[in-house]
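Customer escalation, tier 2.

The customer says the design service returned an amino acid string that "doesn't look like it belongs to this structure." They asked us to rerun it and document both sides in this ticket. The original structure tokens are below, unchanged.
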């Protein structure tokens, strides 16, 4: 049974969401502030955490920052509708996805399932390994390395890089990346793909000629260079 940690100071909202998730077959625990939520997330007892950004004492962004110092636990942020700054900062810090509030319990549940399918390898995955130049990925273990050194990627960053590696040398549209890596259609004005790829580029570094391994292809999407 997948274990979900819900972190929000809105007690009524958490109880409603918890009840829905339990009916859908999840095990759920609650925390009502960022500090206790981060401590619970780092306890290693959960498969995913859903964290509200606006909370007293320690907000969701700071809780995420604390979690990411020690853990790659998948995290979904609940952000205020239209607050692009929180969404971008959250994604840059390693959030796997975000859901604007108010959202239905059904949508949040669907986002949780999409991320768990990727992070737990429940998706159909028969590849034993992918190698593109100095980049190597092991999909069944969701592990990657560059030039023989481990890459520290979030779950979503790994999924995006895996899709690009499968199509190395060819551009992949943002919509295709969203569908295959995030498990949802690309929404209008959604910049999450760009933010995640910016983080991946930073982690991969540059090639000897100064180019990024991941190129932007005008009006077509992104492309992982095949000859790395």
């Amino acid at each position: 049974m997948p274990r979900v940690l819900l972190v929000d100071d809105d007690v009524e909202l958490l109880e409603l969401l918890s009840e829905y998730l339990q009916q859908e077959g999840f095990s759920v625990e609650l925390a009502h502030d960022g500090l206790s939520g981060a401590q619970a997330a780092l306890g290693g007892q959960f498969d995913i955490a859903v964290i509200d950004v606006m909370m007293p004492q320690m907000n969701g962004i700071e809780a995420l920052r604390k979690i990411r110092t020690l853990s790659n636990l998948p995290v979904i942020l609940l952000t205020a509708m239209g607050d692009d700054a929180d969404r971008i900062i959250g994604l840059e810090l390693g959030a796997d996805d975000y859901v604007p509030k108010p959202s239905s319990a059904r949508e949040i549940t669907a986002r949780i399932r999409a991320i768990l399918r990727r992070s737990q390898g429940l998706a159909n995955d028969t590849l034993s390994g992918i190698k593109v130049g100095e980049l190597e990925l092991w999909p069944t273990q969701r592990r990657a390395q560059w030039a023989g050194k481990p890459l520290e990627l979030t779950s979503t960053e790994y999924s995006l890089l895996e899709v690009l590696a499968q199509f190395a040398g060819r551009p992949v549209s943002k919509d295709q990346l969203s569908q295959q890596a995030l498990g949802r259609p690309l929404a209008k004005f959604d910049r999450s793909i760009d933010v995640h790829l910016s983080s991946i580029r930073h982690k991969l570094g540059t090639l000897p000629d100064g180019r990024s391994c991941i190129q932007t292809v005008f009006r077509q999407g992104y492309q992982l260079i095949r000859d790395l």
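Tier 2 assessment: The sequence is consistent with the input. DSSP finds eight helices and eleven strands in the chain. The two ends are 41 Å apart (CA to CA). Sent an explanation to the customer and offered a walkthrough call.
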